């Protein structure tokens, strides 16, 4: 078990290193270097930089050194929490991203939570009552959910919420809390705003997971150990929940790993439509404006978060399946 | 022998309804199980052996359902109950499952869940049928593992099924079937998936447990060797019917039904000359949905009597008496009578 964990952890670290190299390449992709871009930016706004100043900046940032050393310097800064300066915002990248990272996490995790809460019971029901009216209804709803683009659903829900419920939709905060410092009231305000974006983002994933759960469970329900459980005298519910559902959870947990990055990257359009202060729209802006330090930082953070998500799903798998836990025993 | 009758099955019929039509999996099956005795149920695949076992426990998969017949558990006692009349989900029926009737499975690997320890799965069965604490249930589980001959049961109880060999797993399966202290045990091909040495061990274990606990054993198999070794009486099944019933010696010394004779001819013999071809039964078991008219065995029967066999159905074997459902047998009996 420890070996398994260590191996996963090692793999995760290696993946993170590769992500950082990839990010570094992205940052260096535009022609010229950061100082050229900085000078061009300043020139565009009317001021100018002397050649000596430029050289001094290059030395300061280590841009005159070999690429590998530059990567080392950059990584050193990143590890200290310094992601460089955003050229568009003229502020440190960390400041620009700020709360957005945590808000993105909040939205994604609640969407994931919602996905599980809805998909699990419906998937179980659909498998246990295959071809029943309920199964058909959920299947139909599921396919509709899969087919509707979620930004469209976001628009519809915003309209309905505004028109009929008079809700202040869009964003994650009410106007008075948008710039306020963190407080209990602000957290409560966030909690009230979370359900709508979470529901919109959860929809497609939920539909998908219902299908996965239903198919998995249908496979497992045919296995002899289910008959064993019934032959013991367990109630049908208990027999199904304890044995085949547990087995069907296996692929369910591994789907967590891909669902998480999907939620973050797939949320860009929805975030724009709903005006969410998450990193998705920021990444889009940064890419459009060729703001490479900002884009690089976001890519790096998302990459690392995905790796962490995968690690969590590996640990879940370990908990669910003793065959993985006891590997090499 | 005046052994107590534990289970009397009468005229049991089970149907599977689907869009393709109605399939009669069981068509008037009758037999008795007696305490301390073994009924061997033999026949080719698809003849209804396993459906019979599952019908008794009322766990026939949908869309199968019992359409006729009775299954009287403990007839003539205060605990008498007709299993065919119970709601499969009822508390009483769940008490029968594992509590009064235990089931042993064919595939010891897939019949145990890989997600829980052996101890967990046995304790669950114990707790289901006894009002005792978890600690007591654990002791009972260890006791059961010892009874079925598993060495070091105190440590094996925390093993997962995939950590055990096939033979040990089947012993766990037997321990689980015995957890509720049942008076009837149904073993559905308990040795088919095991190698020959392990088979012999499992069979002798079953016999020892049966003697100790005076269990009524229903042993389902397609192996005539297992029947010869284990059974007191034999029910030969074909296409959802009992076509012959007799004490085990009679089945081997003077088989009545042509199907029984064909089955016996198909047993490999140690006395056969090298390269001698094994006798087989021509054709295959017809699909139960396409049941032949008349005697269901007539298309494959080497001794059929023409129109009589193709048009009329022979009388079923009356329970408790030796006999065969065959016109030829009826005729010869009429001559001797």
TrEMBL record, chain A:
Keyword match DNA damage: no
Principal localisation: membrane
Residue stretches making up the ABC transmembrane type-1 domain: 101-313
Localisation: Cell membrane
PROSITE patterns tied to this protein: ABC_TM1
TM ranges: 9-27, 101-124, 136-162, 194-213, 256-280, 292-320
Membrane topology: Multi-pass membrane protein
UniProt keyword Nucleus, yes or no: no
UniProt keyword annotations, A-Z: Cell membrane, Membrane, Transmembrane, Transmembrane helix, Transport
PANTHER family associated with the record: DIPEPTIDE TRANSPORT SYSTEM PERMEASE PROTEIN DPPB-RELATED (PTHR43163:SF6)
Entry similarity comment: Belongs to the binding-protein-dependent transport system permease family.
Protein name from the UniProt record: ABC transporter permease
Organism: Roseococcus pinisoli
Automatic annotation (TrEMBL), chain B:
Secreted in keyword set: no
Protein known as: ABC transporter ATP-binding protein
Residues covered by the ABC transporter domain: 9-264
Record Gene3D superfamilies: P-loop containing nucleotide triphosphate hydrolases (3.40.50.300)
Family: Belongs to the ABC transporter superfamily.
CDD domains: ABC_NikE_OppD_transporters
Top-level taxon in the UniProt lineage: Bacteria
Membrane topology note: Peripheral membrane protein
Record's keyword terms, sorted: ATP-binding, Cell membrane, Membrane, Nucleotide-binding, Transport
């Amino acid at each position: 078990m420890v070996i398994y964990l260590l191996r996963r952890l090692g793999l995760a670290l290696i993946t993170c290193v590769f992500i950082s190299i990839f990010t570094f390449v992205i940052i260096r992709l535009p022609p010229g270097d950061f100082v050229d871009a900085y000078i061009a930016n300043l020139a565009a706004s009317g001021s100018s930089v002397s050649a000596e100043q430029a050289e001094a900046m290059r030395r300061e940032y280590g841009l005159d050194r070999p690429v590998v050393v530059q990567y080392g310097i950059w990584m050193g800064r990143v590890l200290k929490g310094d992601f460089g300066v955003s050229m568009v915002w003229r502020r440190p990248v960390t400041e620009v991203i700020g709360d957005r990272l945590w808000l993105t996490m909040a939205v994604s995790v609640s969407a994931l939570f919602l996905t599980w809460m809805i998909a699990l019971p419906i998937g179980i029901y659909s498998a246990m009552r295959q071809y029943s009216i309920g199964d058909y209804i959920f299947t139909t709803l599921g396919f509709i959910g899969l087919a509707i683009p979620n930004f469209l659903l976001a628009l519809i829900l915003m309209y309905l919420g505004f028109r009929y419920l008079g809700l202040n939709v869009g964003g994650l905060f009410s106007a008075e809390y948008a710039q306020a410092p963190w407080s209990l009231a602000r957290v409560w305000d966030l909690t009230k705003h979370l359900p709508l974006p979470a529901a919109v983002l959860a929809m497609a994933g939920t539909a998908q997971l219902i299908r996965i759960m239903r198919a998995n469970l249908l496979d497992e329900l045919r296995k002899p150990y289910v008959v064993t459980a019934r032959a013991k005298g367990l109630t049908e519910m208990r027999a199904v929940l304890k044995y085949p559902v547990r087995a069907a959870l296996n692929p369910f947990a591994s789907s967590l790993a891909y669902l998480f990055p999907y939620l973050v990257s797939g949320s860009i359009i929805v975030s724009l439509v709903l005006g969410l202060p998450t990193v998705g729209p920021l990444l889009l802006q940064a890419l459009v404006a060729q703001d490479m330090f900002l884009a690089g930082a976001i890519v790096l953070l998302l990459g690392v978060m995905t790796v962490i998500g995968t690690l969590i799903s590996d640990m879940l798998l370990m908990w669910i399946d003793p065959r993985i836990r006891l590997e090499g025993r | 022998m005046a052994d107590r009758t534990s289970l009397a099955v009468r005229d049991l019929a089970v149907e599977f309804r689907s869009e393709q039509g109605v399939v009669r999996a069981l068509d008037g099956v009758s037999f008795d199980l007696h305490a301390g005795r073994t009924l061997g149920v033999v026949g080719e695949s698809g003849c209804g052996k396993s459906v019979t076992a599952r019908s008794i426990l009322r766990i026939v998969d949908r869309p199968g359902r019992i359409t006729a017949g009775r299954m009287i558990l403990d007839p003539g006692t205060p605990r008498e109950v007709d299993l065919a009349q119970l709601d499969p989900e009822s508390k009483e029926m769940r008490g029968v499952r594992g509590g009064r009737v235990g089931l042993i499975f064919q595939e010891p690997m897939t019949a145990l869940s890989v997600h829980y320890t052996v101890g967990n799965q046995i304790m669950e069965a114990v707790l289901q049928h006894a009002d005792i604490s978890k600690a007591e249930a654990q002791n009972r589980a260890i006791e059961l593992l010892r009874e079925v001959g598993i060495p070091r049961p105190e440590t094996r109880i925390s093993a997962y099924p995939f950590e055990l060999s096939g033979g040990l797993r089947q012993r766990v399966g037997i321990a689980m079937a015995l957890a509720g202290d049942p008076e009837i045990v149904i073993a559905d091909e308990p040795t088919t998936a095991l190698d020959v040495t392990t088979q012999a061990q499992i069979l002798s274990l079953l016999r020892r447990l049966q003697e100790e606990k005076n269990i009524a054993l229903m042993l389902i198999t397609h192996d005539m060797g297992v029947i010869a070794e284990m059974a007191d009486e034999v029910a030969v099944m074909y296409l959802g019917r009992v076509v012959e019933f007799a004490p085990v010696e009679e089945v081997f010394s003077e088989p009545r039904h042509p199907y029984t004779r064909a089955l016996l001819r198909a047993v490999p013999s140690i006395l056969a000359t090298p390269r001698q071809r094994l006798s087989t039964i021509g054709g295959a078991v017809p699909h139960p949905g396409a049941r032949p008219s008349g005697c269901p065995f007539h298309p494959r029967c080497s001794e059929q009597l023409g129109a009589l066999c193709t048009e009329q159905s022979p009388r079923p074997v009356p329970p408790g008496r030796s006999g065969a459902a065959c016109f030829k047998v009826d005729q010869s009996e009429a001559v001797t009578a």
